[in-house]
Design a protein that fits this description.
By secondary structure, the protein is mainly beta. It folds into 3 domains: 131 residues, Sandwich (Immunoglobulin-like); 151 residues, Immunoglobulin-like (Sandwich), CATH 2.60.40.420; 124 residues, Sandwich (Immunoglobulin-like), CATH 2.60.40.420. The protein is built from 3 helices and 34 strands. Strands 12, 13, 14, 15, 17, 19, 20 and 22 form an 8-stranded mixed sheet that branches. Strands 1-16-24-23-18-21 form a 6-stranded mixed sheet, with no helix packed on it. Strands 2, 3, 4, 6, 8 and 9 form a 6-stranded mixed sheet that branches. The structure holds CU-O-CU linkage (C2O) and copper (II) ion. The site of CU-O-CU linkage has 10 residues, from strand 7 and strand 33.
Length: 494
């Protein structure tokens, strides 16, 4: 153990309303409170679906609710089909999926399928608003490799707030390779979803505080004093197998984590876009907001192992401002049974032939500064880039300042070609849809735009630090048939 800063100690006393505060809450700094890990992890239920004429139909309702995070008083939250977070949607490659999404909130929302390859009018970005009382019914064919994706609201200017209130869920994709893989894959047994989020929580009243949203937090946004997994503060998980797979989602609005254990390495088996080319053994895996990683952890009978977040390397030579780069805290305790079921070494078939840099016909440059990309703030009625369907492109992306940013592109899963001209580290050798941008480095991303041309409806690219995104760090691109021009993009601002 190497505590880097004083920890304020609190204890969770069983089911009693008792998160005892060691000292007063200081919500203006980023340090994370230390809690005891005495509450079982809650596994989000798998979303129910019905088969209707070969289409698999899901129902999601965005609704208001009340949640007791500390076992005592409830606090106002939002969720899908429940009071906080949402069920895990699961589908197989080749399936046609359809959703009926009801908005029972008091304000407009959208539901975006983060990481999904799909037509732009099904994407759930800011151009597919669902008014209060309305229902949205998107449908598409799942046609991409098995992966851990997620869904969350994306209304322009209000994404940070709605995700923070609790609107988010996982979307797992399966395919023949993932099903045949030697990997733990029994959902909620040895294949565990772990949605990691931080919140400002007043531990005396159990209230989630919202006053630092919208830019009153640090430069990166709100860094909470409490970190929760699947909505549980201080969670543990009972492990029954000698290997456990954790599907980590950084569902935070601003905080970047560096996940690992004090006493063991982990095996990275999948990143945003699906299975890695091969297993990658790591001590820590850095995840910025929106990124996912599937890791396999080995356990000995009867032991306890704490998943922690170590001080994340934000690549910031002027460390010292509050971006969470010094924060270190426990996340989830794994408790192994006295006898563990044996499993095989992680192995799978990988047949993604990859994209060829030589095929790239267009190179675009993006520089992120403040709340602008290439000098412009997001404008719903302006299309920034026009891409021809079928083309392979290189997007060269740079964070032009010391303040942390990341970069997410809708519709595609890209390959990281180089970082400052060098090959990326092994953990970035798989497909990605979101990538952390270390300051002043050039990330060259290779991507191919396939299947869906629509000159009228844009996809988004943006920083996934949600306060940044809301404040303008976002741009829009349309994919058109070769030779076709820009269409008419509806302006929802008016
Ligand atoms: Cu996770 Cu544009 O979104
Ligand atoms: Cu940013």
């Amino acid at each position: 153990m190497s505590p880097h800063r004083p920890l304020r100690s609190i204890a969770v006393a069983g089911a009693v309303a008792a998160l005892l505060v060691g000292c007063g809450l200081a919500p203006s700094t980023s340090p994370v409170d230390s809690v005891e890990f005495e509450t079982p992890l809650v596994i989000p239920p798998l979303a129910e679906s019905t088969a209707q004429n070969g289409v698999r139909v899901f129902e999601l309702t965005a609704q208001e609710g009340e949640t007791a995070f500390t076992g005592g008083d409830t606090t106002a939250t939002r969720g899908f089909n429940g009071s906080f977070l949402g069920p895990t949607v699961r589908a197989e490659r080749g399936e046609v999926v359809a959703f009926r999404i009801a908005n029972e909130l008091s304000d407009e929302t959208t539901v975006h399928w983060h990481g999904m390859h799909l037509p732009p009018d099904m994407d759930g970005g800011p151009h597919q608003p669902i008014a209060p009382g309305e229902t949205w019914e998107p449908s598409w064919t799942i046609d991409q490799p098995a992966a851990t994706l997620w869904y969350h609201p994306h209304p322009h200017g209000a994404t940070e707030q709605q995700v923070y209130q609790g609107l988010a869920g996982l979307f797992l994709l399966d395919d023949e390779h993932s099903s045949a893989a030697a990997l733990p894959q029994e959902y909620g047994v040895d294949d565990i979803p772990v949605i990691v989020q931080d919140r400002d929580v007043d531990l005396e009243t159990g209230q989630v505080l919202h006053d630092r949203l919208g830019g009153d937090g640090t430069e990166v946004g709100l860094l909470g004093n409490i970190v929760m997994t699947n909505g549980v503060i201080g969670a543990y998980w009972d492990v029954t197998t000698d290997r456990v797979r954790l599907r980590l989602l950084n569902g935070s609005t601003a905080r970047t984590y560096s996940f690992g254990f004090e006493d063991r390495s982990v095996t990275l088996v999948a990143s945003d876009g699906g299975l890695m080319p091969e297993p990658v053994v790591l001590d820590e895996i850095r995840l910025s907001p929106g990124e996912r990683a599937e890791i396999v952890v080995e356990m000995e009978p009867g032991e306890r192992a704490m998943l922690r977040s170590f001080p994340p390397d934000l690549g910031n030579p002027a460390a010292g401002f509050a971006a969470g780069e010094k924060d270190e805290f426990d996340v989830l305790e794994l408790r192994a049974a006295d006898e563990l079921q044996a499993s095989d070494e992680p192995a799978w078939t990988y047949d993604d032939v990859g994209l060829a840099e030589a095929d790239a016909t267009v190179e675009r440059e993006f520089e992120l500064n403040g709340r602008r990309i290439n000098g412009a703030e997001m404008d719903m009625s302006r299309i920034d880039e026009v891409v021809e369907m079928g083309s392979t492109e290189i997007w060269s992306v740079r964070n032009g300042e010391l303040n942390p940013h990341n970069f997410h592109v809708h519709d595609v899963q890209f390959e990281v070609l180089t970082i400052d001209g060098e090959a990326p580290p092994a953990e970035l050798s798989g497909r990605k849809d979101t990538i952390y941008l270390e300051p002043h480095r050039e990330y060259r991303l290779l991507m191919r735009f396939e299947d869906f041309a629509n000159p009228d409806v844009p996809y988004m690219y943006h920083c996934h630090l949600l306060q940044h995104e809301d404040a303008g760090l976002m741009g829009q691109f349309v994919v058109v048939e070769p030779g076709e021009g820009l269409g008419e993009v509806p302006d929802h601002d008016h």
